[in-house]
Structures are given as C-alpha cells and as structure tokens.
Amino acid sequence: MSSIINRMNNSLKVSYLYLLLGVLAVIVGIFVTTNTIEFTQQAINTKGKVSSLVVIDTKIYPEVAFSSSSNETHKFISNSGCKPACYKKGESVNVLYLPNQPNQAQLNSFVSLWVPTLLTCGKGSIFIVFSLLQIKRLKV
C-alpha cells in the first residue's frame, strides 16, 4: 500500500490532476460567491422567528417562519446546522428573501451566506498551492 502512495506522491500526472481539481473548486467558489452577492443585493431583509429545531444527520437546523412583504407566512429550514443547537425555539433571527421567491429564504448570517464560498475557494486554493509545490519539486 505504501508503494502505491509513494508512486502517487511522485507522479506529475497526479499533481496535475490535483491542480485541475483545485482550479475547478475555485471556479465553483467564484460562482457561489457571485450568486451570494446577487442574492444579498436583491433580497429583502426581515425578521423571522425560529419555529422549531430539526435534527438532520446529528446536526440541529433551525426552521424559521417569517412574513413576506405581502403578509404571507413562509417557513424554511436553514442551510446551516450546529451541534449543539445555535438557535433556540422562539428566537428572533434576520432573514433574507427574494420578493418573487420567498420560499428560498436564508438566514442573514455569515455562516449561512459565506461559509460555502470559503469552503470551496479555500479547499481549491489549498489544492492549487500544494500541487504547484509538488510539480515544482518533481520537475527539479
């Protein structure tokens, strides 16, 4: 097994593959960032209330209810969960939603809005840096 790992670590093809994966991850991260910026610029900010806590795969996600500008009540489950719970039932939270798509609302928080960008761009950047270092090492 270690001989396979050593061959992979000393392969330019594998290094270029990691470089490609890193570049793709950064491109996806840029796309996610662009979508998030557009969403935040077009969205309406309102108050919502945590109506319940939902357990999904050991993490606890808040289900949030809010009223749109047309006075309709909408509910959504946040895209970010924690263990232990980050929110309490009945807690007031800031919500962003698009006027024409209130069912695709998000919490107005750093974690909900920007962690996907940080993860994709961050992982992609790490792949790029380490693969370039590996390529440089192997070409010397």
Query: What is the H-and-E element order?
Result: HHEEEEEH
Number of helices: 3
The strand line-up of the biggest sheet is 3-2-1-4-5
CA distance, first residue to last residue: 26 Å
Number of domains: 1
Secondary structure category = alpha+beta
Structure report:
With 140 residues, the chain is an alpha+beta fold. The protein has 3 helices and 5 strands. The chain has helices at residues 2-9, 12-42, 110-139; strands spanning 44-56, 59-67, 73-77, 92-98, 101-107. The radius of gyration is 21 Å and the shape is elongated.
Structure characteristics:
about 140 residues, alpha+beta, 5-stranded antiparallel β-sheet, 3 helices
Please write out the topology.
Layout: H1 2-9, H2 12-42, E1 44-56, E2 59-67, E3 73-77, E4 92-98, E5 101-107, H3 110-139
Antiparallel strand pairs: 1-2, 1-4, 2-3, 4-5
Transmembrane segments: 12-32, 113-133
Keywords: Membrane, Transmembrane, Transmembrane helix
Protein name: DUF3592 domain-containing protein
How is this structure best summarized?
With 140 residues, the protein is of the alpha+beta class. It contains three helices and five strands. The protein is elongated and about 65 Å long.
